[in-house]
Automatic annotation (TrEMBL):
One Pfam family from the record: MarR_2
Name by which UniProt lists this protein: MarR family winged helix-turn-helix transcriptional regulator
Domain HTH marR-type as annotated: residue spans: 16-148
SUPFAM superfamilies attached to this UniProt entry: Winged helix' DNA-binding domain
The keyword Transcription is annotated on this UniProt entry: yes
Organism domain of life: Bacteria
Record keywords, A-Z: DNA-binding, Transcription, Transcription regulation
Organism field: Clostridium neuense
InterPro entries according to UniProt: HTH_MarR-typ (IPR000835), MarR/SlyA-like (IPR039422), Tscrpt_reg_MarR-type_CS (IPR023187), WH-like_DNA-bd_sf (IPR036388), WH_DNA-bd_sf (IPR036390)
Length: 194
């Protein structure tokens, strides 16, 4: 009986290693493939700006952005430095914590993230083409469950963005409808211009 348990444990070890390797390789592959769709921002830069927009009740500090992205402050600092050189964000000392730095998206950054959203929608449609809507729902649930391996919940991006960013909600709604149409056409085997 003990032998069967060992076999089960070996299989679980193997599966865990394969899951990890697949997620690692998939992340790298997605970043490499997405680069052909994006022109001004990398996927990491996009996610940093999106994290800033989703920090509803917290200051957009390097630490808070890092927590939102599930990464380190040092990694976020590198991304923010590049975004600042491009003129897409500005950093200012926090008024509530002298050790912290707040990050604000500039108007140029808002334009760049809007363009990136339009550019990346084609990539999202391409990479999800083989999945049904139901499979995407299940995969999202499973990935969030995996994220909790250390007891920490994922602070997701599904909620509304922070009102401090000054984005025209009607414009966002129009652009979202347009992107949804393009997404649907591509996922159903067409191209973005049909």
């Amino acid at each position: 009986m003990n032998n069967i348990k060992d076999i089960d444990n070996y299989r679980e070890i193997f599966l865990t290693q394969q899951i990890y390797a697949t997620i690692f390789s998939l992340t790298n592959k997605m970043q490499a493939k997405e680069a052909k769709y994006l022109h001004k921002l990398t996927s990491r830069q996009i996610m940093a700006i999106i994290a800033i927009y989703h920090l509803r009740n917290e200051e957009p500090t390097l630490n808070n952005i890092a927590k939102k992205l599930g990464t380190t402050k040092q990694s976020v600092k590198q991304i923010i430095t590049i975004l600042e050189k491009k003129g897409y964000v500005v950093t200012t000392p926090s008024k509530s914590d002298k050790r912290a730095v707040n990050v604000t998206v500039t108007e140029e950054g808002q334009q760049a993230i809007t363009e990136a959203g339009k550019e990346s929608i084609c990539f999202f449609a391409e990479f999800s083409r083989t999945l049904t809507k139901e499979e995407m729902e299940i995969l999202w649930i499973l990935l969030k469950k995996l994220y909790r391996f250390d007891g920490e919940e994922m602070d997701g991006f599904e909620e509304d963005i922070d009102g401090r960013v000054g984005i025209d909600e009607k414009q966002i709604e129009r652009e979202a409808r347009e992107m949804a149409e393009v997404f649907g056409r591509i996922r159903n085997g067409g191209n973005k211009n049909e």
